[in-house]
Amino acid sequence: MGEHSNQRGSGVVAFLLVLVIVGVIGFTGWYVWHSKQATDSTVQQTNAAAQSTAADAKKAETGMKDASVVELRKYSTSPAELQAAILNYTKSAAPDCVMDGKIVDADKKVYDQDVQYSGSGSAITGIGCDGSSATLFVKRTAGQWEMVEKTQLGFSCDTLKTNKVPAKLLTLQGGDAQCSDGSGLTAYKD
After folding, report:
1. Average pLDDT over every residue of 77-85
2. I need a labelling partner for 80 at 20 to 30 A (CA). Which of 11, 52, 112, 114 fits?
3. Would the pTM of this model clear 0.90, i.e. be above it?
4. Model confidence at 165: pLDDT above 70
C-alpha cells in the first residue's frame, strides 16, 4: 500500500510539472506577442511624430500653414519674415509710424495691425499711422518678403496677376475683388 500512494503522489507531481511547463510556454508566448505589439505601437508613434515634426519644420521654414489658406490675421501672428518686411517698409515710407522698433498709430500707441494673409505667399496691410495706404507684399523664391505695390485706390491688375495673388485675399474685409486696369476699377479673378 505504501508503494501505491507514492505513485499517486508522483502523478500529482507530474501533473503540476506539466501545468508549470504549459504555463511558462503560455507566458512566454504572451510576453513575445505583447512586446511586439508595444514595439509596433512605438514605431507608429515615432513615425507619426517624425512626419508631424517634418511638416511643422516645413511650415515654420515657409511661414505658411497651407498654400490655400487666406485669412485675416494680426501683424504679431504673421510670419517673422513678413513682420520684418512690413516694419522695414514702414520705417522708410512712414518713419513717424515707427517708434522703438514698433509700428505705432497716429497717437504713438503701439498697435497690432490687420494683415490680409495668403499661405501662397502674398499679404496686404495698411501702411501709415492711420493705415490709409494698402500695401501688397509677396514672398519671393528666396523666402524673403518684398513690397511690390502701394495704393489708396486699387492694386494694378497686372501686379496682382504677375504675383498670383488670390482674389479671395482682396475680399477678406468685405467687398468685391477689384483691381485697377489703368482706366478704373474692374473685377479681379485669379
Report:
1. 91
2. 52
3. no
4. yes
The enclosing H or E element of 95 equals none
Number of neighbours of residue 64 by Cβ within 10 angstroms: 18
Dist. CA 78–CA 69, nearest whole Å: 13
Give, in order, the Cα–Cα distances in Å from 11 to each of 14, 18, 159: 5, 10, 96
DSSP state of 156: B
Question: How large is the C-alpha radius of gyration of the chain?
Answer: 34
d(CA 97, CA 4): 108
| Contact (Cβ atoms closer than 8 angstroms) between residue 150 and residue 127 | yes
Residue with cell 478704373: 184
How many Cβ atoms from other residues are within 10 Å of residue 78's Cβ?
22
Burial pattern 112-137, b for ≥16 Cβ within 10 A else e, equals ebbbbbbbbbbbbbbbbbebeebbbb
pLDDT greater than 80 at residue 47: no
Is 79 within 8 Å of 121 (Cβ atoms)?
no
- Measured between its terminal Cα atoms, the distance across the chain in Å is 104
* 126 within 8 A of 137, measured Cβ to Cβ: no
- CA dist 141 and 49 (Å) reads 28
